[in-house]
Design brief:
4 helices; tt1808, chain A; about 180 residues; alpha+beta; about 20% helix
């Protein structure tokens, strides 16, 4: 008679004791090592991040962070989005001072194979992220997803020679060419 093997899930406390010289995320209790992003990924993140940070800071809308920054969504889900924004109204998510405890208002992921399109988008949706940007450096495209009853659905797609506008960040206008420049 075969017996079922118990499924071991890591928790946030386990995650906190992971070796500090590596970058990890905790996805449904699985400790996943994230390799350093390639140079194009980092360049796009830097260019886009600077523009978003400036817009948010000039208007005192809240706090903006670059990876690595732990976002604790649950005891078995801890992610490090490339870029994230927490509004002043949701500043309580930052009260511990070590990490973000709950869903940020905006999460931006520079496309990584598979996880960002599927699993992480669903995870962010379930936990209440209001807006999710998926940025594809290869296709030079930005997909904006908005929260709809626990699901993040694509509402806008932007490519070269277009201007990104965000329903969440009224007045924001970003030229796509500015952050995909070579």
């Amino acid at each position: 008679m075969a017996t079922a093997q118990p499924v071991f899930k890591f928790t946030y406390e386990d995650y906190r004791t992971a070796p500090p010289d590596k970058r990890y995320e905790l996805l449904d209790g699985d400790l996943v090592m994230a390799p350093a992003p390639n140079l194009k990924h980092q360049d796009v993140r830097s260019r886009l991040g600077r523009r978003l940070a400036q817009f948010i800071e000039e208007r005192a809308l809240g706090k903006f962070f670059f990876a690595p920054c732990d976002v604790v969504l649950s005891d078995t889900d801890v992610v490090q989005p490339d870029l994230l924004f927490v509004s002043r109204e949701r500043g309580h998510l930052l009260s511990g001072g070590d990490n973000v405890r709950g869903a940020p208002d905006l999460v931006v992921e520079i496309l990584s194979p598979d996880r960002d399109r599927g699993y992480k988008r669903a995870l962010y949706g379930r936990h209440g992220v209001a807006e999710y940007w998926l940025v594809d450096p290869a296709a030079e495209t930005v997909w904006i997803h908005r929260q709809r009853a626990g699901v993040l659905a694509v509402t806008h797609t932007f490519g070269r020679e277009q201007t990104v506008r965000s329903p969440l960040l009224a007045g924001l206008e970003l030229n796509v060419d500015d952050f995909f420049s070579s």
